[in-house]
Amino acid sequence: MPNTKELKNKYDAIVVGSGGAGLTAALQAHELGLNVVVLEKNEKTGGNTSRASSGMNASESLVQLDEGIIDNNRDFYEETLKGGGLLNDRAMLKYFVNHSALAISWLMKYGIRLTDLTITGGMSKKRAHRPASMEPVGFYLTSRMTTQVKKAGIDIFTGAKVTKLLQDAKKRVNGVEVETPDGIKTVKAKVVLLATGGFGASKDIIKKYRPDLVDYKTTNQPGATGDGLKLAEALDAQLMQMNFIQVHPTADTDNPHVYLIGEGLRGEGAILVNKDGQRFVNELSTRKIVSSAITNLHEDGAYLIFDSGVRAHFAAVEFYDQIGLVEHGTDLADLAKKIGVNGANLEKTIAAWNKSVTTGKDKEFGRTTGMDRELDRGPYFAIHVHPAIHYTMGGIHINTETQVLDTNGNVIDGLFAAGEVSGGLHGNNRIGGNSIAETVIFGRQAGIQMAKYVRESK
Description:
Elements: E1 10-16, H1 20-31, E2 36-39, E3 56-57, H2 62-66, H3 73-83, H4 90-98, H5 100-109, E4 116-118, E5 128-130, H6 137-151, E6 155-157, E7 161-167, E8 173-180, E9 183-194, H7 203-209, H8 227-233, E10 239-240, E11 245-252, E12 259-260, H9 264-267, E13 271-273, H10 287-295, E14 302-307, H11 308-311, H12 316-322, E15 326-329, H13 332-339, H14 343-359, E16 380-392, E17 395-397, E18 403-405, E19 411-417, E20 422-423, H15 434-456
Parallel strand pairs: 1-2, 1-9, 2-6, 9-19, 17-20
Antiparallel strand pairs: 3-5, 4-5, 7-8, 8-9, 10-17, 11-12, 11-16, 13-14, 14-16, 15-16, 18-19
């Protein structure tokens, strides 16, 4: 990364944050002729996006058709609305769904190929697009996008924390103050985008809006402290649905570093069992339902159980294993012994599950997806999981053009926001695979709208 001494004092557009939304917006705005700078407070690019592991949801994509999957935007819309408790911003959701397949194709242009499909909770079809290598989608996306941003000649600085948004006499946002290793600098621009992510690692903000969750561990990277919300709030931006905080059902919280165990593992066929070795929930219900079911066991979490067949279809397991999160058993009895669950019951549970897969009917819990293969190939594996704070659905109130609204509902001139820093798209529960999609779809929209704003303000 260039030294912050090379930071110019004027650009067309400033992008604050270098996760999926920030990098996408920078590339899209650059395509449309803007001189863009990306400012990232962390030492590395990627933000929370780089931790995502399941996929990027899209409907009516060419990738789906290549795999013989006939999907439609209406179903994607209805299922996301239902998953969000009907509390999603309808206009945002409509834009999101209708631009999802296009976003997959746009990434292809930059060599970012999400050509394999899996399914996540609350979805009826395989919509989660991921790399053919099945490596975790987030790091694949952000590492390649960072390369493309540099290749495009876009200035990108790490260790540069924006501390204030600046406005002119007409209250138009026209720059930022940024803390760098070389001191505080003022950078002017015609337009500023906040792509700073959520507040899942901010004890203060969580305590303010959801004191009941303050002791939960988080899957978020330590920099997810809601900086963008504070910057926007200082300009009277409206925050919305701030109490909607998603708890992810499957995280390894036994270590100081919390690891998210991607939903795609269940999408490929893993099941959840309790201490008695029995299933207790439809594993691919929404995150809200599955998290509550694990918490209500009052048993110190639950266990994800899967076999070698499932493992072969979810590459992130190799990483989980490498860092010591995966228990191995030559057979089910051996695995049960190692994790301390009832062995006889576990064998019965797996036999019943395999029968459900064969018949396509899960009589016990009504699961209908992630049933492509029986759990019958040893060795067998288990990961101990607990719910953990994962995603903040609330945030800055924006419209479909990613413009930031103030507390009276008026547009704050020159200020845009995209990604997890914004609120409204997901309702009270985010569907797995929709956050990566949001960063690319609304990151592109932000880039387009910033270019439009700059052209019109000349």
